Amino acid sequence: MRQMTRRGLLQLGAFSTVAASLPFSKLAIAQAAAPRHFFLHILMSGGVDGSYLFDARSLRMTDKGRHANYLHKNSVRSIPVGVDAARIEMEGSNGTKALRTSLVNPLMAHWPDFSVVNGVLMSKDADGHGQNARYATTNQSNEGFDSFLPMVGEQSGFPIESVLFGFFPDGATPGANFSKSIQFRGTEANGIGRALANGPKIEENSALIRHIQERQLANAQGSGMFSQGSKKLHAALRSAPSLSTALQRATGTADPSTVDVLASLAIVFDYFRSGVTSAATLVYNRDPILDVHGADSATGPQMELIGGSLGSGSSTTAPGVTQNLATVFELLKTTRVNPNDPQSPSFFDVTTVCIHTEFARTMVSAAFFGGDVGNTGTDHNPLSNTVILAGNGIRGGLILGESDCTDVDDAGNILNVSGAHFAREGTTNNMALRKVMGKPFDFATMKARSDLPATFQATDYLNFSSVANTVMDIFAIDRQLQFRVGGNQAPILTSLRKPIQTIPG
Questions:
Q1: Is 503 inside any structural domain?
Q2: Over the stretch 95-154, which tens digit does the pLDDT of each residue have?
Q3: More exposed terminus of the chain, fewer Cβ within 10 Å: N or C?
Q4: Signal sequence span per UniProt (predicted)?
Q5: 394-448 pLDDT, tens per residue?
Q6: Position 505 in a domain
Q7: CA distance 143 to 392
Q8: What pLDDT digit, counting tens, does each position of 194-203 carry?
Q9: Where are the alpha helices (H) located in 308-463, listed in sequence order?
C-alpha cells in the first residue's frame, strides 16, 4: 500500500497528468456503466471499552467492585452517582437485548438505520492494536496477508481499489494486496483534482508514450519478479487515464472540517461520486487518549472523549466520538450522490457502513487489585468487541450476539463463566477474571447460545471474520476468497442481509 506524503502527491499528480493523454482502456470505458455500490469502513483506533457503548455491564458489578463503570461511579473524575444511576436497556427488533449508556444517546436517533453486533471475538493469538486491526482486515494478526478492503473496491472497476485516511494502528499496513490502494494523512487529498486540471498536457500519440507502453508490455511477458512488476506498471499506465479523469472530477472540499474524520468523509464522498474509488477506510484515531491502562493514567478523559459534554462532572464541550459518529450518519443520509438531482439517492442508500475498534477493554484497570475500581485505565481485550453495521445491504435495528460476565453474586463472583473463558484468560480463579468474552453463537438461529463450553473452539463464537464475510457477501465476492475459521468459511450473518441498491455509473 502506498502511503501518500506531500512528495507522493506531487508524484501522483505528475504521473496521472502524463498518463492522462493515453487512450482510454476497455476497463475505463466499461467503468462508466458499472453499478455503483460503496463501502465505508471506520476504525476507531485506541480500543473502546464496551461499557461505553452498546455492551454495558450491570451496575451491580460496579457495586461489587468487579467492573469500572465510569458513568455510575468514578472517584477519580468525581462523576456524580446520579449519572446513569439506572440501567438503560435496549432491544433489537429480533428480540435480543443489550445494555447501553447515555454516552450513545446521540446515535440513538439513527437506531432504526444500524444494527449492533456484540460479543465479537477478535484475534485469538495476539492483543496488540496493530495485530487486531490487521486481523479485522486480513483474518490474520501478522502482516503479509490479503485484506478484504481492496477485494470490495475491486468490484467497481474504479482505478483505485481503496483509500485509507489516517494511520493504521502501530503504523502497519492493513494488507498485502494494496498495490492499487492509497493512504492519505489527514486531509492532504483535498484539491488534487484542481491541481491536475491545471497541469501540463502531453500529446496522447507521442512517440515517448507509445515507447513506454511497448517496453513495459514486452518486459511483462516472463514469470519472474521483474516481469510481474512490469506487468503491474503496464496495467497502471493503461488505467491511469481513468484515474486522472476521475481525480479531476473530484475537485475537493472548499472548507475542510477541523475534525479529521468529517473532513475525510467529505473527500470520500467526492471520490465516490467522481469514480476514483468505491471503498474507503477512515481511521478515527483516539489513541493514546483511549489507550490508558492503570491508575497512573487515571486522568485520561475517556468518558468525555466518547460522550463530549455531559454537563455536571464533564469539563469538555467538544463533540465526543458518538456525536461525531451521529454526524457521519446524518451526512450519509443527507448527502446525495448527484448533488444536482433532488431525486438522487443519498450515500446512505448505496453505501455499506462498518464501524468498530480493534478490541474492547477489560472490566477493570490493570491496577485494580491494588486500587480503586474507579481507576479509569483498562487493558486490551480481544475476547469481545462491538461492531456497528449499517447502510446498503444491511437491516437496521437488530442486535446480534451477546457477551458474558454480565452479573455477579453477593460475594462478587461473576456468574455463568464458561470453562472456555477461564482457559482463554489462563486462570481458574473467578476473582482473577478481568475480561469479557463473547457467548457461544448459533449461526442457524442467529442467537447467542446458553451453554457454557468447557474448552475453547473458535468455531463456537462469532468471530470478526463473519462480519468481514458478511460485507464480502454483500459485494458478491467469491466465497473461496472469504475468511475462514477452523478450516471453513466463517458463516455469514444472514439475518443482517437485505437486497442491495445500486445506481448507474
A1: no
A2: 999 999 888 888 999 999 999 999 999 998 888 999 999 999 999 999 999 999 999 999
A3: C
A4: 1-19
A5: 999 999 999 999 999 999 899 999 999 999 999 999 988 989 999 999 999 999 9
A6: no
A7: 30
A8: 666 666 665 6
A9: 321-334, 347-350, 419-425
Cβ atoms of residues 115 and 496 within 8 Å: yes
C-alpha cell at 382: 480481544
* Dihedral class, residue 465 (left if φ above 0, else alpha if ψ from -120 to 50, else beta): alpha
Quick one: pLDDT at residue 499? Answer: 94
- Residue span of the structural domain in which 56 resides: 37-189+256-496
Q: C-alpha angle 389/390/392, rounded to 5°?
A: 125
Task: Give CA–CA dist 48/145, Å, rounded.
Answer: 26
What burial letters (b/e) apply to 260-293, b meaning 16+ CB within 10 Å?
bbbbbbbbbbbbbbbbbbbbbbbbbbbbeebbbb
Q: Which of 41, 294, 329, 36 is nearest to 166 (CA)?
A: 41
Estimate to the nearest angstrom the gap between the alpha carbon of 247 and the chain centroid. 25
157 and 203 part of one domain? no
Instruction: Please provide the average confidence, as pLDDT, over all residues in the chain.
Output: 81
Q: Report yes or no on 504 lying in a domain.
A: no
Best CA proximity match to 60, nearest among 415, 298, 384: 415
Q: Which of 123, 261, 281, 295 is nearest to 187 (CA)?
A: 261
Which residue's entry shows cell 488534487?
192
How many angstroms separate the CA atoms of 145 and 292, rounded?
A: 30
Distance CA 157, CA 362 (A): 42
Half-sphere exposure at residue 335, Cβ-oriented, CA atoms within 13 angstroms: 19
